[in-house]
Task: structure prediction
Amino acid sequence: MKIRQAQLSDQLLTNSYRLCWLNGDSGWWMEEARAQVEIWLRGRGFVVEHHQGTSLQLTRFCEDLSLWSEKRAVEYCYKGAVSADLGRAIEHAIDRSSDDEFMVLITNKLDAKQRQSKWYRSLEELAWLLVVPIWPLESREMQFWLQRKLKDAQVKLTDEARQFLMTECQGNPAAIVQTINKMVFFNNEHPLWNLEKLRGFLVGDVRFSAMDLVKATLKGDAVLAVSVIDYFQQERLEIAALFWSLIREIRLLITIKREVDGGSTLALALKKNNVWFEHRDLVVACYDKLDEIKLLDVLATGQRLDTLFKSMSDSLVGWNELREWCLLLQHALYSKE
Result:
């Protein structure tokens, strides 16, 4: 049976499966799916082991499953091309399994040709197989995902506060989870978080964040960008947080530029790369000015500075280099030359 990632938890709770196949790019959403399945397995008393190999090794591995003690599960990272050989190995694994055995298979994402193949379509019909393609959630699914995360953490937000959390974290799932985990410690103090309480909690005593530097850079506001860097230096905060927020943004802009040049619409590229709310508006506003060659030059310069920032994170030289590099990035975004 094939489902969307948003349906994973409900399917595991309401149906009996012996193999769950997660296929997609490695990244945060893949790790999220792996964690969901492992938590479910451990809750059912399974001992989870981790292995990797080819389809042939997977077939041989399954031969030994019957020798395991009860309630054993394995997470198997498949190394190799996804093909009919893997399909046969999956069928063999299911045939050899029992109710006290479970396998989580992790592979790269499938292309359109693979998804249309006869062997893959036949696998989707297997009753004991759960197929879960992994990709970034769309806006509506993100809202459901956030509601589930809040419910699991027993954190209650008003609708307005929940929207603010999504906006402030720019739809970044790792940042959202990190914030929710912090909020758990204040559940007794705040049984219901409204917008005012959440805003105060997120802002706290900090005047600027790394995201403020990204926003200032996308706006071309050199004064604000330098102010953010000055604030981090004065408060003796981590220089790497600012540096890598800009590195990630440059890579994001290059990715979006290439996808649009390759035939995608800007709206679709933004959605695919989880660019939301105010962040989305800022990228749209500067998109027409994007020059991939200039961005690649700035990225190369930034990567050379990485070693300097690591060795001189609290030095005047390191902070000055960051200021100059940030201004270089703004020049690349807004220069007409």
User: Anything to note?
Assistant: Strands lie at 19-24, 47-53, 72-78, 101-107, 129-134. The mean pLDDT is 84.
